[in-house]
Design brief:
By secondary structure, the protein is of the alpha/beta class. The chain has 11 helices and 13 strands. The chain binds adenosine-5'-triphosphate (ATP) and magnesium ion. Adenosine-5'-triphosphate (ATP) binds next to helix 3 and helix 5.
């Protein structure tokens, strides 16, 4: 796929004297992605790099891919030796319509489109730049890893953007995902069973903390719960401390969600009072609930929330 993107620009690279280097780790895992969208994102980055290197003495484009184990993600980097981005602009480059180009030369949409595509795939995009030296964009995308659990993971979040983001991460790792956008739907799905873990935001719990306590008690607290926001507030905070194997503090990031998934699904972490995630920044470990997770035999009544139309690329 990288070669396909770079091939589109071969003529310009030669014309403008751009050296292209590729460095791909061997044996990279696959990522669940819409190949066309991912190509579009990469092409935007390559076009920006080309533009930034115009008229510069050294013109080198490096495209790399490697595996980042703690995030369970493939990192793709696009580096150039262009003019770089001023510090004051670094935080704005992903904003729609932000451009430093002359009127008519750029819309300022390229990077905001990249950002949207990467987030839709449950990933993250970051930029690092030094004026006069060059710029590197780094994409992290969840890497598909065959998972043993055949249960779904429930993502219950009132805010659609965050819900889709967490769901896309989980789906990218190969989990089946169910959604809920309100407390009663979440409770119904929880009671229906066949869940490996639940990712729930404080807003959903806050609606009825007692109902959640009762529902958890009815199931013997046997489904690991990760609180994805609102862990600091009143009743919900107390609920989180009692019930959650991990508490995520916003912003939600691949590494912290991955650590929470591992804490939730690693049987060894139950019963000893601490979750694995407590070493990872952004994830506060909460006391684990008593009792180990046991395979649920209940039938699932939900529809998987994430359609798997992507292909592994
Ligand atoms: N590799 C890079 N090196 C230096 N500056 C960059 C680089 N990539 C992006 N930028 C800066 O970020 C701004 C926004 O980039 P973005 O791709 O969103 O829009 P654009 O390239 O200006 O317009 P469009 O992509 O719509 O043609 C650019 O105008 C430029 O100032
Ligand atoms: Mg652009």
């Amino acid at each position: 796929m990288f070669t396909r993107v770079l091939a589109l620009r071969t003529y310009e690279f030669r014309l403008n004297g751009v050296d292209v280097e590729m460095a791909f780790e061997r044996g990279l895992p696959r990522v669940l992605a819409d190949a066309g969208q991912l190509q579009q994102a990469l092409l935007n980055l390559v076009l920006n790099a080309e533009q930034a290197m115009r008229g510069r003495a050294t013109r080198r484009l490096e495209v790399g891919a490697s595996y980042v184990a703690d995030a369970g993600a493939v990192q793709i980097t696009v580096s150039d030796t262009g003019h770089g981005i001023e510090d004051g602009n670094l935080g704005r480059v992903f904003d729609p319509f932000f451009t430093t180009r002359d009127v008519g030369e750029g819309t300022g949409l390229g990077l905001s489109i990249c950002y949207g595509i990467v987030r839709d795939h449950g990933g993250q995009i970051a930029v690092d730049s030094q004026v006069g030296v060059g710029t590197t964009f780094a994409l992290l995308l969840p890497a598909y890893m065959p998972t043993a659990a055949n249960e779904e993971l429930l993502v219950a979040h009132t805010e659609q953007g965050e819900r889709d983001y967490v769901a896309a991460m989980l789906a990218g790792w190969g989990f089946g995902v169910a959604f809920a956008d309100n407390a009663s739907a979440a409770l119904a799905r929880y009671r229906a069973g066949n869940l490996g873990a639940i990712f729930i935001d404080g807003g959903i719990v806050a609606g009825d903390v007692d109902a959640w306590r009762a529902a958890r008690q009815a199931k013997g607290g046997s489904i690991p719960l990760v609180l994805t926001s609102g862990a600091a507030q009143g009743d919900v905070a107390k609920f989180g401390r009692e019930q959650a194997v991990a508490l995520l503090t916003p912003p939600i990031e691949l590494r912290t969600v991955r650590a929470a998934v591992q804490a939730a699904l690693s049987h060894d972490d139950f019963g000893d009072g601490r979750a694995d995630a407590n070493e990872t920044s952004g994830v506060d470990a909460a006391p684990a609930e008593a009792g180990r997770r046991t395979g649920s035999t209940e039938d699932s009544t939900s529809q998987s929330g994430v359609s798997r139309t992507g292909e592994y690329v």
